[in-house]
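Weekly sync, protein design subgroup
Attendees: M.S., D.O., the rotation student, P.L. (late)

Item 1: inverse folding check
M.S. brought a backbone from last month's batch and wanted to see whether the design step gives back something sensible before we order anything. D.O. pointed out we never logged the input encoding, so this time it goes straight into the notes. Structure tokens as presented (411 positions):
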């Protein structure tokens, strides 16, 4: 797992892979309902939705988001989502908040819902399967994540007022009858109650945020990691589960392709042309300053002054895995990444630095980077390994600056 983990100061390219990395557009609808008129306030759904929306954007999704939505606002958002799905290859729906099941059918509860009688259910709540139907009709891959099983008073109220002819409302959600090309993840087991969480995020959202950006990981493997984290965090009190009918492997962040085979050791290297030799001398003479830049800046990120650090190292923008990002986007992702670690160590493998000149003020620097992360969450895995990093460098007045960045896990 460590070899496939996001790789520290080189991790940004893996997290910020754009939709251009895949042939089809990816569109998400993200909803967080927490402030209920009739059921009090849930602490985390809006935080969960905001953070999931940011994470999905960083890995190439177009995101439609809404928080604390009433019935009409929720329906408008679903309509906007339906329009955006035209021509998309992947549709994703994430919902955090109150949800319930009635006669095996699952419902989202808008914040303005008044569910004192079962007969009002069709008027006040939104069936989740209708959102799933919209996705399945328009996309090849439909993904649904439901952190909607908080212990909610609506189910209790409806159950108290139910008659022999009324549908009985139950806490938790039910398995969907059928799916077509879909993957549905639930924050807890059928009919069970999920925890809202005591920190910024629910246990399910926290684990999803931690694992969704890992490159080369199938959605099934991701859910195994999410389930393991949630079970550990809740002391066996909550166990996420999923159902699906995907016809092919899906990865949120595609993994790197196989590394090119090295040339045979016996093959002699061609002599450099006079112009190339001159460039090598001009940049080669400065190899020591490039190594110093890496050791003092790239491999020692200053989390206390992240904005200043990023602007000094990357300037106003940089190209990460072929896509251009401004400094503010880089600052946010890096800040979020390092916030989850108690400590970390990054190092330049001795003798691995290779410099390829592209002029007197530009060069590529390729090197092996060792990494070791100790998580704040003691139940999470420690990440250690080695990555091959390639940086495009430009020499500015104040010194070297990163113009482009890629990385690949090493065996």
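Designed sequence read out in the meeting:
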């Amino acid at each position: 797992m460590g070899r496939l983990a996001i790789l520290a100061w080189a991790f940004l390219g893996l997290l910020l892979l754009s939709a251009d990395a895949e042939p089809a557009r990816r569109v998400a609808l993200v909803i967080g309902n927490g402030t209920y008129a009739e059921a009090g306030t849930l602490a985390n759904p809006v935080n969960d939705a905001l953070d999931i929306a940011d994470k999905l954007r960083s890995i190439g999704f177009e995101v439609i988001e809404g928080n604390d939505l009433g019935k009409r606002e929720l329906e408008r958002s679903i309509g906007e989502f339906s329009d955006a799905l035209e021509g998309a290859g992947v549709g994703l729906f994430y919902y955090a908040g109150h949800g319930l099941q009635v006669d095996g059918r699952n419902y989202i509860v808008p914040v303005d819902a008044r569910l004192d009688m079962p007969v009002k259910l069709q008027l006040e709540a939104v069936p989740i399967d209708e959102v799933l139907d919209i996705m399945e009709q328009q996309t090849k891959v439909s993904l649904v994540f439901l952190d909607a099983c908080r212990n909610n008073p609506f189910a209790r109220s409806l159950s108290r007022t139910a008659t022999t002819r009324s549908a009985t409302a139950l806490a938790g959600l039910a398995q969907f009858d059928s799916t077509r090309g879909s993957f549905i993840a639930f924050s807890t087991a059928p009919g069970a109650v999920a925890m809202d969480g005591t920190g910024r995020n629910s246990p399910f959202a926290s684990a999803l945020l931690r694992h969704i950006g890992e490159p080369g990981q199938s959605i099934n493997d991701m859910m195994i990691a999410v389930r393991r984290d949630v079970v550990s965090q809740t002391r066996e009190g909550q166990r996420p589960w999923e159902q699906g009918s995907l016809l092919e492997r899906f990865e949120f962040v595609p993994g790197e392709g196989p590394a090119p085979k090295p040339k045979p050791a016996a093959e002699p290297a061609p002599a450099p042309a006079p112009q190339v030799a001159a460039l090598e001398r001009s940049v080669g003479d400065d190899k020591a300053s490039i190594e110093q830049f890496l050791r003092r800046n790239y491999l020692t990120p200053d989390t206390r002054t992240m904005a200043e650090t990023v602007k000094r190292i990357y300037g106003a923008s940089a190209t990460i895995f072929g896509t251009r990002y401004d400094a503010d986007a880089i600052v946010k992702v890096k800040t979020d990444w390092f916030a989850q670690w108690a400590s970390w160590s990054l190092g330049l493998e001795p003798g691995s630095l290779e410099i390829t000149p592209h002029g007197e003020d530009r060069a590529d620097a390729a090197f092996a980077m060792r990494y070791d992360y100790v998580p704040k969450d003691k139940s999470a895995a420690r990440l250690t390994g080695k990555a091959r990093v390639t940086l495009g460098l430009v020499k500015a007045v104040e010194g070297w600056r990163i113009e482009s960045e890629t990385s690949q896990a090493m065996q």
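Discussion: Confidence is low (pLDDT under 50) at residues 1-23, 158-170, 257-285. The first strand starts at residue 25 and ends at 32.
Action: P.L. to compare against the previous round before Friday.
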